[in-house]
Design brief:
- This protein has seven helices and 15 strands.
- With 335 residues, the chain is an alpha+beta fold.
- The chain folds into three domains: 65 residues, RNA-binding S4 domain (Structural Genomics Hypothetical 15.5 Kd Protein In mrcA-pckA Intergenic Region, Chain A, Roll); 92 residues, Pseudouridine synthase (2-Layer Sandwich), CATH 3.30.2350.10; 170 residues, Pseudouridine synthase (2-Layer Sandwich).
- A hairpin with a 2-residue loop joins strand 2 and strand 3.
- The longest helix is centred in the middle third of the chain and has 13 residues.
- It starts with a strand and ends in a 7-residue tail after the last helix.
Length: 335
């Protein structure tokens, strides 16, 4: 890693950090510098900042950490995959929690893409850039469940069209199982709230005013609450159906309703004390889960070359099943 340093001139007062860096480090594009800032590679004095738009006062000492160059081509790695379906065009994976989908800062290898390169060899589609061969959609690192990958460029184009349409005209289906704090006011809801970058933290997404973000629609169906007969449940299990596919969409929408996912440290941090209301078994199960309680349980689509309707389901992984069993054992306050 190389550290570059500079002192902001008095003329930099009121200027954006990324603009000042671009003027002083001409070897880097402003877009590249913005990416480095968001990755935590810039310190102003002793403080790390992740906001490229922060305004300078002038006179600050700024340090820029340049990571070592890595090969742009991800390499194949022998990583076990749970394959639900495979043919010459596509492969459908049941992704475990903890597996990153494609290489990115902090995850140069050990990803689903690395596993697929080893599994599929040269057949893997390269549309979308060398960093994401075959990837048409994604799941967060800590979200488990069904994901489809294209093995040819033709399949990639066909799948990409379906995901761009979000199933409004076609056959795409995406459903998730989510465990949330509390219980929404209605058993069936449609959340229609635009999502964009959070104005307070550019590394997070947030519900934003119309016109400032992208349309985001999530259908929610409350399937069970715990304790089961409580008038004020601690936790609910919700089926979520996506009508759009925004970054962190389910997590952001549920948080905006005041019912964030259990275990979501990013969008549900303010609900950590709720854990104290659970019994010992449920607390232990939630600690063992150690991630947001979200699982991509169903994915349906038309085969990109044959047109045949395909539908794949994934049961809750063991850690989520254990959490569900523990929650079912919660006693009602009156019992």
């Amino acid at each position: 890693m190389t550290i570059l340093s500079m002192i902001a001139s008095e003329d930099a007062r009121g200027e954006r950090l990324d603009r000042v860096l671009a003027l002083n480090f001409a070897d880097f594009s402003r877009a590249r510098l913005q990416a480095l800032i968001r990755e935590g590679a810039v310190r102003i004095g002793e403080i790390t900042t992740t906001d490229p738009s922060v305004r300078l006062r002038g006179g600050e000492k700024i340090a820029l950490a340049i990571p070592e160059a890595v090969s742009p081509e991800p390499r194949g790695q022998d990583i076990a995959l749970s394959i639900l379906y495979e043919d010459s065009q596509i492969v459908v994976i049941d992704k475990p929690a903890g597996l990153v989908v494609h290489p990115a800062a902090g995850h140069a290898d050990g990803t689903l893409v690395n596993a697929l390169i080893a599994h599929c060899g040269e057949s893997l589609s390269g549309i979308g850039g060398v960093k994401r061969p075959g990837i048409v959609h994604r799941l967060d690192k800590d979200t488990s469940g069904v994901i489809v990958v294209a093995k040819t460029d033709q399949a990639h184009r066909g799948l990409a069209e379906q995901f761009a349409d979000h199933g409004r005209e076609g056959t795409l289906e995406r459903e998730y199982q989510a465990f949330v704090w509390g219980r929404p006011r209605a058993d069936v809801m449609v959340v229609d709230r635009p999502i964009g970058r959070s104005p307070r933290n550019r590394e997070r997404m947030a519900v934003v005013p119309k016109g400032r973000g992208k349309e985001a629609l999530t259908h929610l169906y409350v399937e069970e609450s715990f304790p089961p007969r409580s008038s004020d449940p601690l936790v609910s299990r919700i089926r979520c159906r996506l009508e759009t596919g925004r970054t962190h969409q389910i997590r952001v929408h549920l948080s905006s309703l005041g019912h964030p996912l259990l275990g979501d440290a990013v969008y549900g941090g303010g609900f950590r004390t709720k854990m104290n209301k659970l019994d010992e078994a449920s607390q232990a199960a939630l600690r063992a889960l150690d991630r947001q309680a979200l699982h991509a349980s169903l994915l349906g689509f038309a085969h990109p070359t044959t047109g045949k309707k395909l539908r794949f389901t994934s049961r809750l992984p063991p850690a989520l099943e254990a959490l569900e069993r523990a929650l079912r054992g919660l006693a009602n306050p009156s019992e």
